[in-house]
Amino acid sequence: MTSDTIRSRPTESAAPDPSDLKSLPISEVQKQLGSSPDGLTQIEAAKRLAQYGPNEIAEHKTNPLLKFLSYFWGRSRG
To answer: Which of 13, 18, 24, 70 could connect to 28 by a Cys-Cys bridge, CB 3.0–4.6 Å?
Structure first.
Protein backbone atom coordinates (compact mmCIF):
# COMPACT_ATOMS: atom_id res chain seq x y z
CA MET A 1 0.00 0.00 0.00
CA THR A 2 1.31 3.40 -0.92
CA SER A 3 0.31 6.80 0.28
CA ASP A 4 -1.32 7.43 -3.11
CA THR A 5 -3.88 4.67 -2.56
CA ILE A 6 -4.92 5.62 0.98
CA ARG A 7 -6.84 8.84 1.16
CA SER A 8 -8.88 10.16 4.01
CA ARG A 9 -12.05 11.90 2.94
CA PRO A 10 -14.35 13.75 5.28
CA THR A 11 -17.92 12.52 5.15
CA GLU A 12 -20.73 14.83 4.12
CA SER A 13 -22.30 14.56 7.56
CA ALA A 14 -19.11 15.65 9.35
CA ALA A 15 -19.56 19.14 10.78
CA PRO A 16 -16.81 21.67 10.02
CA ASP A 17 -14.55 22.69 12.88
CA PRO A 18 -15.87 26.03 14.25
CA SER A 19 -12.36 27.37 14.82
CA ASP A 20 -11.61 26.90 11.13
CA LEU A 21 -14.74 28.81 10.11
CA LYS A 22 -13.72 31.96 12.00
CA SER A 23 -10.78 32.64 9.71
CA LEU A 24 -12.53 31.91 6.38
CA PRO A 25 -14.31 34.42 4.15
CA ILE A 26 -18.10 34.37 4.47
CA SER A 27 -18.58 32.88 1.00
CA GLU A 28 -16.41 29.89 1.93
CA VAL A 29 -18.26 29.43 5.24
CA GLN A 30 -21.59 29.42 3.42
CA LYS A 31 -20.23 26.88 0.95
CA GLN A 32 -19.00 24.57 3.72
CA LEU A 33 -22.28 24.83 5.64
CA GLY A 34 -24.40 24.34 2.52
CA SER A 35 -26.09 27.72 2.81
CA SER A 36 -26.31 30.96 0.83
CA PRO A 37 -26.82 34.67 1.56
CA ASP A 38 -30.56 34.00 1.22
CA GLY A 39 -30.49 31.10 3.69
CA LEU A 40 -31.39 27.46 3.13
CA THR A 41 -33.63 26.24 0.36
CA GLN A 42 -36.95 24.67 1.38
CA ILE A 43 -35.62 21.25 0.37
CA GLU A 44 -32.42 21.63 2.40
CA ALA A 45 -34.35 22.95 5.41
CA ALA A 46 -36.73 19.96 5.29
CA LYS A 47 -33.78 17.58 4.94
CA ARG A 48 -32.02 19.07 7.98
CA LEU A 49 -35.23 19.11 9.99
CA ALA A 50 -35.69 15.40 9.30
CA GLN A 51 -32.03 14.65 10.06
CA TYR A 52 -31.45 16.80 13.16
CA GLY A 53 -34.96 17.57 14.45
CA PRO A 54 -36.39 20.98 15.34
CA ASN A 55 -34.12 23.75 16.57
CA GLU A 56 -35.59 24.22 20.03
CA ILE A 57 -34.67 23.93 23.66
CA ALA A 58 -36.92 21.81 25.85
CA GLU A 59 -38.55 23.85 28.60
CA HIS A 60 -37.90 22.60 32.11
CA LYS A 61 -41.04 22.98 34.21
CA THR A 62 -40.87 23.04 37.99
CA ASN A 63 -43.73 22.41 40.34
CA PRO A 64 -44.36 25.65 42.29
CA LEU A 65 -45.35 23.72 45.42
CA LEU A 66 -42.14 21.68 45.38
CA LYS A 67 -40.12 24.83 44.82
CA PHE A 68 -41.79 26.48 47.82
CA LEU A 69 -41.20 23.42 50.02
CA SER A 70 -37.57 23.22 48.93
CA TYR A 71 -36.96 26.53 50.73
CA PHE A 72 -37.72 24.71 54.00
CA TRP A 73 -36.10 21.36 53.23
CA GLY A 74 -33.07 22.60 51.31
CA ARG A 75 -31.55 24.80 54.00
CA SER A 76 -29.11 23.46 56.54
CA ARG A 77 -29.47 24.41 60.17
CA GLY A 78 -26.78 26.68 61.39
So the answer is: 24
CA distance 20 to 33: 12
Distance, CA of 67 to CA of 11 (rounded, Å):
47
> Does 1 reside within a domain?
no
What residue numbers bound the domain in which 69 lies?
18-73
Choose among 54, 58, 48, 16: nearest CA to 33: 16
Write down the pTM of the prediction: 0.45
Structural domains counted in the chain = 1
Q: pLDDT tens across 30-64, in order? A: 888 888 889 888 999 999 999 999 988 888 888 99
- Asked if 34 contacts 28 with a C-beta cutoff of 8 angstroms, the reply is no
